[in-house]
Amino acid sequence: MTANAANTADTTPARHRQPRVLALLAAAHGGPALAVTVITGLLALRGGLHPFHAVAVTSAVFTGQLTIGWGNDLLDLARDRAVGRTDKPLAVGSLPAGWVARALVVAAVASLVLSALVGWRSALVNVVLATGAGHAYNLGLKATPWSWAPYACGFGTLPSVVTLAGPAPGWAPWWMTGAGAALGVGAHLLNVLPDLADDERTGVRGLPHRIGEHLSRVLAAVLLTAASVLAVAGPAGSPPAWTWMALALVVVLAVLTLCARGRAPFRAAVTIALLDVVLLTAG
């Protein structure tokens, strides 16, 4: 091999090299994808689905989430390189774009097949609304005042992806849909905050960029608290005592989010989001 060939074979700095499987998971935004998958799995278990259907619908959502993450990094490749994103395998060159494109196609086919296994109603909502909303965000809504809408749609319809796969297919209760939508928009506001400056440099101006960091934190706290209230007060019957205790903790954390300084507001808001997930799946 010539020196020139050796240089073109791998120009990635050693500190950026990682196993391709891990790089693929990182490019798929593995953390958020797994979080949404866990929520789906818990909803499926609480919803009394047949084990086969529970596994199928959870896997369908997971593979759909993978396509959203990979699609995001493929579309943002030039932007991520422009701002020097060292946390993106595609941007630093540790993962070929062709690998990601092929993985996206495989995951998309798998999501379609798995969705079909649990019935056309659940499949339609998962593919068109839950997963489709994520791709709509990637394809342009992220840079508009409507950047929150895909999150409201995706998280709001997620419970229905599960309930429509059950033995008596039906839409999720209104309170669950509302709590999911509020949780999704709150998560969007929190997720964008660390990247506000980089996004502005590359022309991405979604809702958080337009209203600013402080107001985004305030709105996130309000929405996440609203999700908690819906999750506690929405289900029929008297809520268990522990849910009221959790709701009281949410209120304290919301006040902390509004009044504290430094990283404390962000951490408090993330904690509220985690409590929302517990309350939503328990309900």
Describe this structure in words.
The protein has 283 residues and is mainly α. The protein has two domains: 18-169, UbiA prenyltransferase (Tetracycline Repressor, domain 2), CATH 1.10.357; 173-282, Up-down Bundle (Four Helix Bundle (Hemerythrin (Met), subunit A)), CATH 1.20.120. The chain has 15 helices and no strands. The protein has helices at 3-9, 20-27, 30-46, 51-75, 77-82, 89-92, 97-117, 120-138, 149-163, 174-192, 196-201, 207-211, 213-233, 241-259, 264-282. Helix 8 packs antiparallel against helix 9 (149-163) and helix 9 packs across helix 10. The longest helix is centred in the N-terminal third of the chain and has 25 residues, at 51-75. It is globular and about 55 Å long. The termini are far apart. The model is unreliable at 1-16 (pLDDT under 50). GO terms for molecular function: transferase activity, transferring alkyl or aryl (other than methyl) groups. It is a multi-pass membrane protein. It comes from Streptomyces violarus. Keywords: Membrane, Transferase, Transmembrane, Transmembrane helix. It is found in: Membrane.
